[in-house]
Amino acid sequence: MQLTHALQEDIPALRAIWRECFGDEEDYLDFYFRNRFVPEDTLLVREDGAPVAMLTLMNVTRNGKSGFYIYAVATLPACQGRGLQRRLSSWAEEIMRQRGGSFCCLVPAEEYLFRFYEKLGFRPGFARWEKKIKNDSSFDLIEFYPCSFKNFRELRTEYLNSIPNALVHPDRELGYIYQELCCCGGQVLRFYEGEKLCYAAYSFDADSIYLREQTGSDPERVARALMDLHSVSEAVVTSHLSFPGAKKREWVMAKDLFDGENTVAVGHAALMLD
């Protein structure tokens, strides 16, 4: 077994791991490996030279301190249950510390993984509120406008500056998130709430809206207007704040990379590559 960084020539093997573990379509894999794959940020376990497990690092900051978001964590099913991710995670922490990271965080893909990551020293760091709503046509019309990346970055920076302990993506990472939304079944739009300019970042398909982040005062109102815009029947609304009828869900787990009490609180953590 070897712990190594990825190489460009590993892409076919990594696509196979991604396909088998996550089930994404080939179009998305083409998009990801063309626009986001960074060999030095992709950490692997190799057996007989071939990748069998992986994880990926993305830079984030919190209160101006550098950290890392861990995502695309996968092990080939035939190799699971052998502690490969434990070893990979331990090595990843060494790398993150060497790069100046003070914390790391992740979003467990399944409920049972919260227990797995607790054993690795992660603790709940952020819970968000979720609610599924139907389109009952009882909403105030909102006029939406295109939102360029420049507009989005400026509006989001202002928004996150008002939230203590918010996770912030540097420009390169935020640019990819914006690009993925716009190219892979999502969108970012601007709208006005009185004199205030707001934005909504969401995904959608033929049946539903997934409102990932919005800066208006009423997330349900925004979601209903988006349902009308796309002629869909339901939406999942998420927020870092409680709102009527929403259920609390543990979302991000975090870990201090240095000795301490590991109380890495996160005040906002939307638009993660979950």
Helix/strand layout:
Blueprint: E1 2-5, H1 11-22, H2 26-35, E2 42-47, E3 50-62, E4 65-75, H3 84-98, E5 103-106, H4 112-119, E6 123-134, E7 144-146, H5 149-161, E8 167-168, H6 171-183, E9 186-193, E10 196-204, E11 208-214, H7 219-230, E12 234-239, E13 247-256
Parallel strand pairs: 4-5, 11-12
Antiparallel strand pairs: 1-2, 2-3, 3-4, 3-8, 5-13, 6-12, 6-13, 7-9, 9-10, 10-11
Structure description:
The chain is α+β, with helices and mostly antiparallel strands and 274 residues long. It has two domains: 2-101, Aminopeptidase (3-Layer(aba) Sandwich), CATH 3.40.630.30; 129-247, Gcn5-related N-acetyltransferase (GNAT) (Aminopeptidase, 3-Layer(aba) Sandwich), CATH 3.40.630. 30% of the residues lie in helices and 35% in strands. The chain has seven helices and 13 strands. Strands 1, 2, 3, 4, 5, 6, 7, 8, 9, 10, 11, 12 and 13 form a 13-stranded mixed sheet that branches. A hairpin with a 2-residue loop joins strand 2 and strand 3 (50-62). It is globular and about 60 Å long. The two termini are 28 Å apart. 31% of the residues are buried. The mean pLDDT is 94.
